[in-house]
Amino acid sequence: MHIILLSGGSGKRLWPLSNDIRSKQFIKIFPGPEGEYESMVQRIYRQIRSVDPDATVTIATSRSQVSAIHNQLGDQVSVCVEPCRRDTFPAIALACAYLQEIKNVDADEAVAVCPVDPYVDTEYFEAIRDLTQQAEHGAAKLYLMGIEPTYPSEKYGYIMPETTQAVSRVSAFREKPGREEAQAYIRQGALWNGGVFVFRLGYLLEKSHALIDYADYADLYARYEELNKISFDYAVVEKEPDIQVMRFHGRWMDLGTWNTLTEVMGETSVGNVRMNDNCENVHVINELSVPILCMGLKNIVVAASPEGMLVSDKEQSSYIKPYVDDIHQQVMFAEKSWGSFTVLDVEDESLTIKVTLLPGHRLHYHSHAHRDETWTVVSGEGIAVVDDAEIVARAGTVLRLPAGCRHTVIARTGMTLIEVQMGKGISVEDKLKYSLEAKYGKHRS
Amino acid sequence: MHIILLSGGSGKRLWPLSNDIRSKQFIKIFPGPEGEYESMVQRIYRQIRSVDPDATVTIATSRSQVSAIHNQLGDQVSVCVEPCRRDTFPAIALACAYLQEIKNVDADEAVAVCPVDPYVDTEYFEAIRDLTQQAEHGAAKLYLMGIEPTYPSEKYGYIMPETTQAVSRVSAFREKPGREEAQAYIRQGALWNGGVFVFRLGYLLEKSHALIDYADYADLYARYEELNKISFDYAVVEKEPDIQVMRFHGRWMDLGTWNTLTEVMGETSVGNVRMNDNCENVHVINELSVPILCMGLKNIVVAASPEGMLVSDKEQSSYIKPYVDDIHQQVMFAEKSWGSFTVLDVEDESLTIKVTLLPGHRLHYHSHAHRDETWTVVSGEGIAVVDDAEIVARAGTVLRLPAGCRHTVIARTGMTLIEVQMGKGISVEDKLKYSLEAKYGKHRS
Lengths: 445, 445
Known about the structure:
2 copies of one chain form a homodimer. By secondary structure, the first copy, chain A, is of the alpha+beta class. Chain A has a 6-stranded antiparallel β-sheet. Chain A is globular, with a radius of gyration of 24 Å. The interface between A and B is large, with 60 and 59 residues.
């Protein structure tokens, strides 16, 4: 089967573990099958592979997530990059053009579009596999997944099926209702709209060309910024008379807040955490190396990362957004395709950063106009390139990189560097990139 | 007046702001007269000066606190260093020998001994000034301060005065009683023993020579390790028939736990802290630069430093000690006479440290047998000395210091350095010190 995972959001509601460049789907807090912690995207990717080892998975996302995706899923996963945010219809149109032209998917084959962030079991992807089979062989144009409601939620859209059968034609859609309306819909057999859309690729290509004037994938990509922001529900679903919905009553959780996220954590703590016996219903996630000690807490979530620390009553944690919007600081850590970085220290005219490189990966070959840097290799081995000269880099190697000098490190093994940046107004914008491809092969940012 | 401040303790009860080398008296959380935060020792030192600008203050303490004392009180304060911990009688005997020989205090002059950590107002030191005048002119051998009890505490010793007058002879002492006993004592007019001892210097020198076989200060210092651990109460007070006690009913608080400490904090938070309106009776102290966000908390103390983070119900916070005893990590920050250091990153075979130097101060001239270091100056100016060669050091200067090389930095202005240490089994023990005094003057560690 072909799956398009929509991976969006900047995830302020799970601060300080999510930030402007790490969305919630990349936080590693779910116990994985081999004892390690998985992120949402890693969990879902593993679940899809376990249901269908031959599934092609394409992640539709923004440029800012590409590095984290490659870091967590490896270099083989397909990523369809949106040049900018334009809501779900343009994103799905672009991903479908990508599947047709880059992945050579046939117009008759079914494609399933799913959000990347529901917390589900594998039966969810078994249901999606069934839906793709129905889409390929059935008569309807569009197949949806309807989640059996567990309470009259005001934050989901509702699908009204014609019958109570497992698969039914859709009679109507209802957008986020009030509580009493929601209760009434549920009595009428309504289902939550889980954001899953399944169709034959040709169907969506037709819709795209009907609604957007473009020649091919490259053309669509080039004019992406001009497109209207419009949701797939609004542009396609609500206008399509021929839709079927399949009921799903397996586990389906929307883990958008600390309160809901901690419900599915396998353990009460992740990381260096100590709790006394008087703690009740407390969850602690510590991404720092120093310990967190909790004593006598009740119904509390504690989360710490290089960005900061949250200590919140679990219910209150869903109101976090305005407080986080008010925090203005630079990004303190990020996962990149080549490894990761963490800001260790911020001074007026210097930044100290720890950089880890994955084996076989490298930084961009780059220079800075307004800052000098000192890099000290503290572990691992590789080659540094400084103004086109190669230098063997291993623990103890110190590189002095004055402003203007071109530099990179190509890791042979995993490497760790301490980078001290010095200058006035240090900024991530101050970076000129150069090509090293001729000599060292393709680089993925 | 002459005051000996007894400064002891390693302060695990206020973890993570106190640690093995920073005792609670050095935590800066009390609003000072000029808007800055003061530590307990800074507050008490300022209060003494305001009551008697000519007071001589001598701090009796262990070697591990000397740097922090000079950092917080300046280089002029007298410090009498105990070579090792031997309880209060040896400490007071040593300090009195120090006053006699090093400070030339006359045997007829009165000396007041006070703990460094009660939270008091200036009237406390006015009372001590009165006591020193009584000790110089009065008939009794020893004068104590008796604190009017506010509840039947089980953790203090009680003094039984003969009368209810402001100053009275002492009839008896009672060690930490049970609650009912304490209530009975208080009904009989008992006072808490505040640990203040006032006497003429000659009195204590006599007692010291009677109980310890030593020639002079240097001899006492040299044989200090051989002395028995014995308290001043046990060795002197309980054996002295001629004692007077003065009642004190001003503010006197023992700030030994987070619960009591937060009661006297001027504000509910110190540092980069955000709280929503649903927090009640919450105190947060954040010594990190990244923010702490608290939502919907009640009766909670949060404290964060480079050592770790505590989140505790206020009452539970008094049971912290065994949990902190169980945390084994290196010291992550310290205040030194020359400035301070903070550990930024710990890896198997490297440590990254931020060092700040105060203007005019310098590190020891030293070398390491088993580690290489890279120092990058990120702000300020001074002179680096590397294997006896002088190098101008300013923002951008990088020093590569292989194992065995002698090195130091002498700060002209305030300076900040990032130090990357590399080697197997990095240890603070791996340090050889050399003298630079002939050329650069005396160094204070």
